[in-house]
Amino acid sequence: MGVEQQKIIADEIYAKLQVIDPYCILAGGAPRDWYFGNPANDLDFYFYSNGSTIRAVRKQLQAQFGTVQLLMDRERCTTNPLYKTMEDLVRIWEMEYQGQKVQMIQLGNPRSTFKVVDKMDVSVCQVWYIGGEVRLSENFKLTLASNIMFPTAEGYSWSDPHAQKMITRFKGKFHAGTKESAQDVVIRKALQTI
Question: Could you tell me which CATH class the domain 3-136 is placed in?
């Protein structure tokens, strides 16, 4: 499936998910991959639900999308090292929508959807999609300008599992470094043009 088809599907899902959470967001891997012109493996939507039980949230999601599966509960989310920077993550739901794999990542606080991008652990993941447009965080732009990606969460390092995955995925495109090293590269480039 191509990028444009995935965007159409994402827009449909987004419109339906807004019934549950008007501030839901598609962030991370899919918008990043689209920015680079590549199809995404899956779509990760982050949302808040006022449903107080698994059953209540499942009913909300099924009313919009049909069959959904609970992939991970709160206990598994909090102990999974891939999600250690997302402390407000409650559950991960999974479904297939028009042939596209989708994960619905449930957050425990209605304000958390506004912080999702900032909680992404590596700069090259701090990107989101809304209104037909891929939006870039300042850290993502710094990565593009310097060719250096960097951990963005406190206490997060290149030895963490997701960071290792990003090193492998972007080998030859971006170097693993620090925000300070990325800033230094951008400053050096700017000074060379003066």
Answer: alpha beta
